[in-house]
Amino acid sequence: MNSPHIPAQSQDAMPAAEYKMDPAPDYSPRHPGSGKLKGKVALVTGGDSGIGRAVSVLFAREGAKVAIAYLEEDRDAQETKRLIKEEGSEALLIPGDLGSKANCEAAVKSVIDTFGQLDILINNGAQQWLDADFADLSEDKIERMIASNIKAYMFTTQAALPHLKEGASIVNTSSVNAFAGMGSLITYSMTRGASLAFSRSLAGNLADKGIRVNSVAPGPIWTPFIPGTMPADKVENFGSETPMGRAGQPWEVATAYLFLASSDGSYYTGQTLHPNGGMVVGA
């Protein structure tokens, strides 16, 4: 697969906006749906853009109704809703800060009130900043990353569990940085390590209930995280350091979530998939 050239660019926002990115991330599923998620309802946090958008659209193609929780990126969220409807499914948009337990409870309640069930939880929403000088990293940014990347996963899962039945699936987003580390992303890497440990521990806790818990640890993927985090000159040719020589696209990651969320992954729990362009890390 040839990767489009990524020019220098940046956005002064976190989360950043997908509609401003050049080139646009590729979220489009590559294959016809086969009904793998027919009759299912999924809640995708951070589903407005990036990996979350690709997962939402793919799940819709496979027959799921999709609720999207996001912070405040209304334009991107409305576009994802349109794409889900274009796939012949139904979408629910839920804006709000999931770093608040009350908001997580309200989000899950909205899903149940609208669709009457919840079968799949994708904890994916997150924030990221560079730790240019870790000693000077502000308390506010540390707290925001912990709230978004750790607390939100725990609170949303707590709210979802009373509604998840045997056969349900939870998939948490981790990162290659949870395994390999990243000197310029210390706090972010720490939070992604937490989501990895959360997945493995929760998998053991819920195994006897028939609820599977897994994680996906993407490598460098062309999403709004990148122009929202990195200086413009660092964005140019993002991902070229991987063995495959390019950044991944969101659609290439979404297939891992589909595998783990569907019955294809029925013997997987406590595991991690690594769409990262050939970066070899400890499993």
Features:
globular; about 280 residues; single chain; about 10% strand; alpha/beta; Rossmann fold; 7 strands
What does this structure look like?
38% of the residues lie in helices and 11% in strands. With 283 residues, the chain is of the alpha/beta class. It has a single domain (18-273), classed as Rossmann fold. A seven-stranded parallel beta sheet has the order 3-2-1-4-5-6-7, sandwiched between helices.
Brief overview:
This protein has 283 residues and is α/β, with parallel strands linked by helices. It has nine helices and seven strands. Helices cover 38% and strands 11% of the residues.
Q: H/E order of the elements?
A: EHEHEHEHEHHEHHHE
Task: Tell me the CATH topology.
Answer: Rossmann fold
Q: Assign the CATH superfamily.
A: NAD(P)-binding Rossmann-like Domain
Q: How many individual helices?
A: 9
Summarize the topology.
Elements (H helix, E strand, L loop, with lengths): L40 E5 L4 H12 L3 E6 L3 H13 L4 E5 L5 H15 L4 E4 L15 H22 L8 E5 L3 H4 L5 H21 L5 E5 L8 H5 L2 H4 L14 H12 L10 E2 L10
Parallel strand pairs: 1-2, 1-4, 2-3, 4-5, 5-6, 6-7
Helix pairs in contact: 1-2, 1-9, 3-4, 4-6
Pfam families: adh_short_C2 (PF13561)
Family: Belongs to the short-chain dehydrogenases/reductases (SDR) family.
InterPro entries: NAD(P)-bd_dom_sf, SDR_fam
